[in-house]
């Protein structure tokens, strides 16, 4: 894992442009108002860039990723992908875009069909988009190589792989249709620390090779800091801090971001002492509860 935050991606053109997005889930009780999970969220992503979306459980991160994928009830606002409005887009048009916007989920144990061999899992989206069987086999070999899995992996079932290897399969499947944007929803949080680092490095390497952009959703600021060019901090359905990775993760302005930063593990004892002191100062200033 590289230690410093990543430098900003250079291409300023925007691939995803979300403006004032409001998502409301229906409430269960009779005549109860809907629950507003996103309250006017605006965020953009440039080609080849990683934007980290960080926040505590329930803050709305997954909901935002789902809104991009057309899986959350957007009440108002706009989400443009490559200048095309995704909100309210007809299903047929959405299907056409399916290859360009892909997703990698958190749990590599449930996101792969256990009854399908890896080659089938990787071939399925290719065949659905009209790729011939012969070409699909060539692509499977290329994808396995791209994610660092042995070339004979295609014949095996998901249960024969470790969590990290399964997540590599999930990444390969997401890459099959050469997407320009991947929503990565907590893609490493189910993995142990050293596997996390290897999967993060793989994502970076793929991005450098292909120019794919990531929305990287995580509750872990340390992980987000490692992979992101820019960071958005989400709190109770709103973005409270948003900008280049280094200033936000090194010197956050919002008390909530400081709290997240303090929750991130720091192995260096001197840094831990500094963090304890900073935490104490924040408690004294009333920005944090003891
Ligand atoms: N389908 C749904 N129906 C009703 N409420 C929902 C639904 N999905 C999410 N919520 C609520 O919306 C809020 C945001 O949830 P979301 O899953 O987006 O948060 P998150 O930040 O991704 O949390 P986590 O890290 O735990 O996944 C939560 O209060 C959640 O209970």
Architecture overview:
By secondary structure, the chain is of the alpha/beta class. The chain has a domain at 254-289. The protein has ten helices and ten strands. Helix 3 packs across helix 4 (133-146) and helix 5 runs parallel beside helix 6. Bound molecules: adenosine-5'-triphosphate. Residues 25, 35, 37, 55, 57-63, 219 line the site of adenosine-5'-triphosphate.
Q: What's the overall geometry? A: globular
Ranges where pLDDT stays below 50 over 5 or more residues in a row are none
Element-level helix/strand string = EEEHEEHEHHHEHEHEEHHH
Bound molecules: adenosine-5'-triphosphate
Q: State the total count of DSSP E strands.
A: 10
């Amino acid at each position: 894992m590289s230690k410093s935050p990543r430098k900003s991606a250079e291409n300023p053109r925007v691939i995803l442009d979300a403006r004032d997005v409001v998502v409301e889930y229906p409430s269960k009780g009779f005549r109860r108002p809907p629950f507003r999970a996103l309250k006017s969220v605006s965020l953009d992503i440039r080609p080849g860039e990683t934007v980290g979306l960080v926040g505590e459980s329930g803050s709305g991160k997954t909901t935002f990723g789902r809104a991009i994928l057309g899986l959350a009830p957007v009440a108002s606002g706009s989400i443009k992908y490559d200048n095309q409005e995704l909100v309210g887009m007809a299903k047929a048009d959405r299907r056409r875009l399916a290859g360009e916007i892909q997703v990698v989920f958190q749990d590599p144990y449930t996101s792969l069909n256990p009854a399908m061999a890896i080659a089938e899992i990787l071939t399925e989206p290719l065949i659905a988009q009209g790729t011939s069987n012969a070409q699909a086999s060539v692509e499977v070999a290329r994808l396995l190589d791209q994610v660092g899995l042995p070339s004979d992996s295609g014949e095996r079932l998901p249960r024969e792989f470790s969590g990290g290897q399964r997540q590599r399969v999930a990444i390969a499947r997401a890459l099959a249709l050469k997407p320009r944007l991947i929503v990565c929803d907590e893609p490493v949080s189910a993995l142990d620390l050293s596997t996390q680092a290897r999967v993060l490095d793989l994502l970076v390497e793929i991005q450098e090779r292909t120019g794919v952009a990531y929305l990287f959703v995580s509750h872990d600021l340390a992980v987000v800091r490692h992979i992101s060019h820019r960071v958005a901090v989400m709190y109770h359905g709103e973005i409270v801090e948003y900008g280049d990775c280094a200033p936000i993760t090194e010197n956050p302005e919002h008390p909530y971001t400081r709290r997240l930063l303090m929750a991130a593990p720091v192995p260096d004892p001197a840094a831990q002492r500094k963090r304890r002191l900073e935490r104490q100062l924040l408690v004294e200033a009333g920005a944090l509860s003891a």
